[in-house]
Amino acid sequence: MSLLGKETTTLSWPDYRTVWRWHFYAGVFCVPFIVLLAASGGIYLFTPQINAWLDRPYDRLSLTGPHMTAQAQVDAALHAVPGSTLSAYELPRDQDDATRIIVKNRRERIRVYVHPETLAILKIIPEEDRFTRMVFHFHGELLMGNTSSVFVELAASWAIVMVVTGLYLWWPHDKRGFGGIVYPRLTLGSRGFWRDLHAVTGFWISLFVLFLLLTGLPWAKVWGEYFKEIRRLTGTAVVEQDWTVGAISRNTNQDPSEEHLAHTGQTIFPANTGDLPLDNSPLDIFLPSVRALHLPPPVFIIPPSRPEGHWTAKSDTQNRPQRVKVMLDATTGAILKRENFEDRHMLDRMIGFGVAAHEGQLFGWPNVVLGMFTAGGLLVVVTSGILMWWRRRSSGLLGAPPRTQTQPFSFGFIVLLLFFCFYLPLFAASLTSILLIEKLFIRRVPPLAHWLGLENQAGR
Question: Are 312 and 292 in contact (CB under 8 A)?
């Protein structure tokens, strides 16, 4: 394995310089993605606040009379988007807020803001055009679908390797004191300061970065499908999954309120209850029952997935351990079934906790502050790493650390590498591809091997 050094006869873990090369090559690939993910992730942490700020013109309206019925508001929204059907009714958080009604046509899901008193249409916007949804898609797939989602997942896989190798490089093998370990030393000059800043900041944020990388994998296209297949083979699969996998197409008519349907192959029945008398409308019948539950917002009331099915009310709060879903009798408004977070499979609860913390919503403002600390720390690590590379590199070369003679890998290292390959399928595939490309192509092009820092393996 020439990326790691020349073989001898004694088994050992890779030496310091070999690990440094792994760290460097992983960083070269990951750095652009880390910058984009840290910036977009930092913005997405404030999703509730951003949505509230953008929607402020449609809340706390001046009302002078009684509200129109929920069904009348739905009819107004359907009329505003010709050819649409009801997808979800969002329960207003306050009595003087505009009603948000989600309708869908053949192309996309559309959010309609309806004045609860006059039925005036205040705003119409496709769900996926909302700012926070665009940030969500950029963070997961760079707004370019499943292909980019795979690249983001690949970068996340190698970022895990980058963090682990970085911790190995940071480990104080022969240092005394805490300088350069838990705080940067200020008396070493510019080069020493940036090295310490890179290492120390990386140490303080390493566990948080690993947590974010690992809790982000369930959304990823390859890892998510890989995880679902393992659950199927082990008998732990569930009918309803509470998170999306891969990119969400605008043409799937899917949003977070329907993730469980999208992943079970069901199609939401295109309910349009406008032909029912207003006093018999299911929405108006069970709306009081849903309000009485005091579910964490946003709360969506969803039509049945089939003509004979039941309506559903569910909390779609980002703090997933607080999510609740209830099935409602359309005739009486009675609650037929209630599913709390605690009723879900253990694996789903574990991922739910992780996703909520990943989005900064599990334990309030401290969660947001911790997320911002991690995102900011990543940018510091990236900036300091780029500066060190720029100052150290030789003209005309990539700047990889020089190779030195090393030893074959120990049993422990091989086990660790196999674990990474099993847990991160894209890492395994990319590592195999890199080794094949190096052997079959790079070694045969001396200038390229020289630029990459592999010239002494060319033609071997």
Answer: no
- Write the pLDDT tens digit of every residue in 70-104: 999 999 999 999 999 999 999 999 999 999 999 99
Per-residue model confidence as pLDDT tens digits over 3-38: 544 444 455 667 778 888 889 999 999 999 999 999
Nearest partner of 4 among 374, 396, 417, judged by Cα: 417
What pLDDT is stored for residue 13 in this prediction?
A: 66
**Which candidate, 406, 419, 444, places its Cα nearest to that of 1?**
406
The tens digit of pLDDT for each residue in 220-237 reads 889 988 998 898 888 888
This prediction's pTM:
0.85
Residues 179-195: pLDDT tens digits?
Answer: 888 888 888 888 889 99
Residue 257: pLDDT above 50? no
**Hey, what are 182's tokens?**
């838990």
Task: Report d(CA 419, CA 428) in Å as an integer.
Answer: 10
* Structural domain boundaries in the chain: 16-44+150-217+368-457, 56-129+238-361
In contact, 319 and 296? CB cutoff 8 Å:
yes
Percent of the chain with pLDDT over 70: 87
SS (H, E, C) the chain: CCCCCCCCCCCECCCHHHHHHHHHHHHHHHHHHHHHHHHHHHHHCCHHHHHHHHCHHHCCCCCCCCCCCHHHHHHHHHHHCCCCEEEEEECCCCCCCCEEEEEECCCCEEEEEECCCCCCEEEEEEHHHCHHHHHHHHHHHCCCHHHHHHHHHHHHHHHHHHHHHHHHHHCCCCCCCCECCCECCCCCHHHHHHHHHHHHHHHHHHHHHHHHHHHHHHHCHHHHHHHHHHHHHHCCCCCCCCCCCCCCCHHHCCCHHHHHHHCCCCCCCCCCHHHCCHHHCHHHHHHHHHHHHCCCCCEEEECCCCCCCCEEEEECCCCHHHCEEEEECCCCCCEEEEEEHHHCCHHHHHHHHHHHHHCCCCCCHHHHHHHHHHHHHHHHHHHHHHHHHHHHCCCCCCCCCCCCCCCCECHHHHHHHHHHHHHCHHHHHHHHHHHHHHHHCHHHCHHHHHHHCCHHHCCC
Q: How far apart are CA 382 and CA 27, in angstroms?
A: 9
